[in-house]
Amino acid sequence: MATRIRILHVIPSLDVGGMENGVVNLINALPAERFEHHVACLLHSGPLAARIHGRAGVTELHAGRHDPGTALRLARTILRYRPHLVHARNWSCWPDAAAACAMTGVGRLIWGIHGWTTDRRMPWTRALACRQLARSTRQLYAVCRDAAQRFADEAGLPVGRFEVLYNGVDAVRFAPGTDRATTRAALGLSAEACVIGTVGRLDPIKNYEMLIEAAAHLCHTSNGGGPSETDPLAHDVGGTVGGGRAGVAGGAVATELVFVGEGPEEAKLRALAGRRGVADHVRFLGRRDDIPRVLRAFDVFALTSRREGMSNAILEAMACGLPVLATRTGGNAELVVDGETGLLIESGRVESLVRALRMLTSRADLREAMGTAGRRRIESLFTIGRMAEAYAEMYERIARSRR
């Protein structure tokens, strides 16, 4: 096309989050000579807006709960910007984007499922609405095969309507480094301990209670103290995980657990760590702007979600050369090769999590091999460049197509 393709991105906000981070990465990665962008935030802007300064304008619509005026305000934004494509993400943006496109007759609608905020099955009323919305949406996509299949099944849509577009990570910014010791000192982490870390919103769907329970079992049997009589799993952590045998209590090492992120579960998690007697071994770092540096202070990255889309946190950890221990949900199994780049366990199985963590914390050679393999997998399949190429192809194909 002779002119640049204008894209209006419709998202809830530009607060810190995986989906929002992906939008910013995509806008910055797409060639400016081929695409121009505007972001419509249904709620408000946010701190991530600073990262797209100069690459996209931002409009705040200040939507209220069940606000019937949101679609009208979005329609005015569409008429002002006149995009070729309107790209909405996740359920909260789909009805208003579809209504605004119908009101204006401007822009071809693209909609994608990036993740979930609950592990409950979709209500039948929403499934019915999704089938109606899909009729006026030019392209549906998902960020992993699992998300496409799960959403299609629950909504009653043919999975063939969904294209799969994987997320990508900045493999230059997120990379192994040599600043591990200085970062640990700055964060107040032990130089000798095996640090298990996670990054993400402290939200119920992440099931971080499971991670604290597992850390408690590890701490109760570390420092050569042997199994604790108060630890119900301490006598059952020598099983086989990912093809290897986990270390027994006598070979356990001191561990620390680090949470990076904010969210409604923080007080509950702090209280749980206190009740389990491991408050001194669990750190909450809050929101950080230096995630690559913090990741390089970890030995193991863990994600215990009940439900996931395509985890940007896992991508970033693998890019930094960390072994990843994750629940077998969502796109996690499409990222982590079990036994090669990390370990996968079933969601909610604390016993399996303990065994897997004990294996990784007791074997530095295994951590290094898995981290190296994970970095290679990122470089070959999940870079921002690859992600941008896939979206560019979709945008150009739809912009060129006839109605």
Short account of what is shown:
The protein is an alpha/beta fold. The protein contains 14 helices and 15 strands.
What does this structure look like?
The chain has 403 residues and is of the alpha/beta class. The chain folds into 2 domains: 5-168 and 383-400, 3-Layer(aba) Sandwich (Rossmann fold), CATH 3.40.50.2000; 180-381, 3-Layer(aba) Sandwich (Rossmann fold). The protein is built from 14 helices and 15 strands. It has helices at residues 18-29, 70-81, 94-104, 124-135, 145-155, 180-187, 208-220, 266-275, 291-295, 312-319, 332-335, 350-362, 364-381, 384-400; strands at 5-13, 35-44, 56-60, 85-89, 108-113, 139-142, 162-164, 194-199, 240-241, 244-245, 255-260, 282-284, 300-303, 324-327, 342-345.
pLDDT averaged over residues: 90
First CA to last CA: what distance? Answer: 16 Å
CATH class of the largest domain: Alpha Beta
- Major sheet strand order: 3-2-1-4-5-6-7
Total helices: the number is 14
Task: Set out the fold topology.
Layout: E1 5-13, H1 18-29, E2 35-44, E3 56-60, H2 70-81, E4 85-89, H3 94-104, E5 108-113, H4 124-135, E6 139-142, H5 145-155, E7 162-164, H6 180-187, E8 194-199, H7 208-220, E9 240-241, E10 244-245, E11 255-260, H8 266-275, E12 282-284, H9 291-295, E13 300-303, H10 312-319, E14 324-327, H11 332-335, E15 342-345, H12 350-362, H13 364-381, H14 384-400
Parallel strand pairs: 1-2, 1-4, 2-3, 4-5, 5-6, 6-7, 8-11, 8-13, 11-12, 13-14, 14-15
Antiparallel strand pairs: 9-10
Helix pairs in contact: 2-3, 7-12
